[in-house]
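User:
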Amino acid sequence: IELAERLAVEELSGSPVSDVFDKQKWLNCAKQKLLSLPLPKCYWKGEELGLCETVGIYHALGRGGSDRGLMFAMGAHLFGCAMPISIHASDQQQEQWGEKISNGSSICALAITEASGGSSPVPMLTVAEKKDNSFIINGEKILITNAPIADLLLLIAATSPSRGAMGWTAFLIEKDTPGLSIDKLETFGLKGAPMGRVTFENCTVPESAIVGKLNGGFSVFNTAMLWERTGILAGFIGAAEYDLNRCIQFLNDRRNTSGSLAMNQSLSHRVADMKVRMESARLMLFHAAWSIDENKRDAKLWSSMAKYHASEAIVQNAFDTLRIAAGSGWLDEMGQASALRDS
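Assistant: Predicted structure:
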């Protein structure tokens, strides 16, 4: 954890916030095994960590000032794709992609979201129709993190549309597959985690591209959501703590005729609220991670609650940081406005 925070301070932080994906920083993180921590030992010949330990390391990255966009891209790759692939993929798929995924040379994107459904994946309008020993895929995915830079897509599509979620199938699809096209989207924040629109027009993939079982995509989806919604916000909670510490320093340094602004009760009460929010979000996150590690029956519930509480707390803290900074925040001197957009 100390090494992760030091890496963040020395190599992954900086102002202004990156407005593009930083491949060199990505590779630096991969070199430090940050894209493989919870993956099986066979992937990277290292010590396999639990989600609790991994979350602690990502939290330290944020606390050290790492760019939120980079952390979001890493989280989408590791928690949303690499983990479900390591659990559900065939031996052949593991052999082909395992090392590349864990060392960061192949970037993954999880393709689920569709424009018609928004945050709900039902109904799934992207359809994969079986033809001989192949599947022909047609449809469109939107707001797919890492899509413009991805080498590999983990796609969830409907193979038996009448069965709803029980008719979904997961596929591994390489970026240069004919019939697959990706367009970069301009987003409001998280510039370091490029998002895209993924279009399938008679995109043909072999049966061997299936991850798990035919019509078993809901299981892959659940694994991806359980790990991603829990792990991806760890760095953001750490980053909010980083911002809070700088906010406190700002108040200590600013003075008026009565002394330090930190002595102003209206400001100190707001800081206290921010601290309580972050501590409660951190505790809920670690409890959710522990529940997953221990395979608790209520792990999904804790994961969902942690994501909800943490995301609300992070946004509220970003607002309060901007309020406290006042004119300095409007000038984005310490990245307060950028943090709010990203959050």
